[in-house]
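To whoever is on call:

I kicked off a structure prediction for a single chain this morning and the downstream step that reads the tokens threw a length-mismatch warning. I double-checked the sequence; it's 238 residues and nothing unusual in it as far as I can see. Pasting both halves so you can look.
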Amino acid sequence: MTSSVCIDSDNWQKLEKTLGYSFRDKSLLVNAMTHKSFANECPDTAGPDNERLEFLGDAVLDLIVSEYLMGALPAADEGELSRIRSDVVAMPSLAELARLLGIGQDLLLGKGESGSGGREKPSLLADALEALFGAVFIDGGYRAARSVVLPLVTPLLEQASTDEGQDHKSRLQEFLQADRKDLPVYRMADVAGPDHDRVYRVEVLIEDRVHGTGKGRTKKSAEQNAAEAALKVLDKDS
């Protein structure tokens, strides 16, 4: 059971005001802010960590964004809708929203995680924001979750829908920069076929480890496909 001190903290009230939502069940808010490092270090005072709420919040966010895009862009095809949604729900975008909300200062972290800069880690911030969305959904239902999510993501959705769209290599670079990792290195792995019909296979390495492979009729298209594959891997791991 989470301590009453945590539940009654002024931090939670400030966060509720920033979100524009007051929880009926305050323990859900605390649960959303509880990282597994805190739950592990303080088993007697901490409640469950926020991973299950994050799982739910990810799905809630996808649904809300998808519904919005279906109404806002009736002429867009599935590929365009998917691109815009992926831009908005990607970890760098969510982490930036979490920073704007001041979520980092409210996270319940273990001493080790806190001491190593956990309050600024993009992955932790993005996860906590998704956990918050999941908590709001449980506490107030879909309408409440939508009222919290849309004001936060609508500016991003509007920007993404008017942009030409970033290529996968640019998105991968921004993803890695947000997570403070080394920039990707593209390596030609194989070239097959006759001169007039080449097929290139490129690997993308991140910190000396292959994260994705892509094929294409040109080196550039192979690199783009490799970057797309790496983004999918990183998104699953984040």
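Update from on-call: the warning came from a stale cache, not from the record. Cleared it. Sanity check on the structure: The mean pLDDT is 85.
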